Structures are given as structure tokens and as C-alpha cells.
Amino acid sequence: xxxxxxxxxxxxxxxxNVTAAYGTNGFTAELEAxxxxxxxxxxxxxDRDEADERPAKKVAGRLMSEGVECxxxxxxxxxxxxAYALEVRPAAKSxxxxxxxxxxxxxxxxxxxxxxxxxxxxxxxxEPAQAREPLP
Length: 136
Fold this sequence. Notes:
Elements (H helix, E strand, L loop, with lengths): L3 H9 L16 H10 L2 E4 L5 H15 L4 E4 L8 H7 L3 H10 L2 E2 L13 H4 L15
């Protein structure tokens, strides 16, 4: 996620494998190294506006150059994870739908066995871990 509040939104909805980039320019070498060392696939959940398109592509480029598959969670235009979760309830379900609909960010076709989205490339799309009540 781009911000802590967005990461906490996923966390509160039960999605535990989440972190924050601390802004569009806050994706550090340390965070990159941690993701490269521990993840084969990353879903980028930056805000869905013009200001965040380029940074999302930059993060994806860095990670994909290290062998990490990157997908983009596409919230409705103008919304971030928190605003989306507040608007489309329950948050655990709406965020789960957004996760499963994430789109491939690489050039060319998605990795083998994938038809372009996380749900199609992975039969075990993430479910919330003991999801709590939706955020107020």
C-alpha cells in the first residue's frame, strides 16, 4: 500500500500480508530487499489516481527486475484502499474482490498458468485471516 492507513485497512479486514511504502516515493531499498527475499508475488495497492500511476509502475519495475511478479489492485478512480473499504462494505469482502481482480503489471503475457488476474493465476486467492468487524 502507499500509506499506513491503507495498510491498516487491509490488516483490520483480516489481510495480514501487507506493508506500506510510506508515500509514492517512500519505497525504500530495504523494503524492496525484504519483498524480494520473501515474496514471489506482490500486489500493489496504491491510490487510483494520476499521481500514483507512475510510482506504482516504478515499484513494479524494480520488483519484477528481481523476479517478483507484480499485480495492481485497481480501486475505482479517485479511491484508495481505506476510502474503498469504507464505501463498499463489508470491507473484508470488498477488499477480497479487489485482491482477486488485481491485474498483471508486466509487459507481455502474465506468468505461465495465469490468465491475467490473481484469481485466475492462483486457485488459492487470499482470504481474510479471522476478519474483524468492518471498519466504521
